[in-house]
Amino acid sequence: MRILIKGGKIVDPAVSEAEADLLVVDGVIREIRPVGAGGEQAACDRVIDAAGKLVMPGLIDMHVHLREPGFEYKETIESGCAAAAAGGFTAVCCMPNTDPVNDCPELTEFILKKAQAAGTARVHPVAAISRLSEGKRLCEYGELKAAGVVAVSDDGRPVESGRLMRRAMEYASGFGLPVISHCEELSLAGDGVMNEGAYATKMGLPGIPNTAESVMVLRDIALSELTGCPLHIAHVSTKESVAAIREAKKRGVPVTAETAPHYFTLTEEAVGQYDTHAKMNPPLRSAGDLEAIVEGLADGTIDVIATDHAPHAPVEKEVEFDHAPNGIIGLETSVGLTLRLVRKGVLTLGQMVEKMSLNPARILGLTRGVSEGLPADLTLIDPEQEWTVEAAAFRSLSRNTPFIGWTLPGKAVLTMVGGRIIHG
Amino acid sequence: MQLRQKDILDMDSLSTVEIELILDTAAGMKEISLRPIKKVPTLRGKTVILFFYEPSTRTRTSFDIAAKRLSADSLSISAKTSSLVKGETLIDTARNLEAMNPDILVIRHSSAGVPHLLGRTMAASVINAGDGMHAHPTQTLLDLMTVKEKKGRIQGLRLAIIGDIAHSRVARSDIVGFTKMGAEVTVCAPPTMIPAGINALGASVTHRIEEAIDGADVIMMLRIQLERQKDYLFSTVREYAKYFGLNVRRLQKARDDVLIMHPGPMNRGVEIASEIADGPYSIILDQVTNGVAVRMALLYLVAGGVRHADSD
Ligand SMILES: [Zn+2]
Ligand SMILES: [Zn+2]
Question: For the whole model, what pTM was predicted?
Answer without folding.
Answer: 0.94
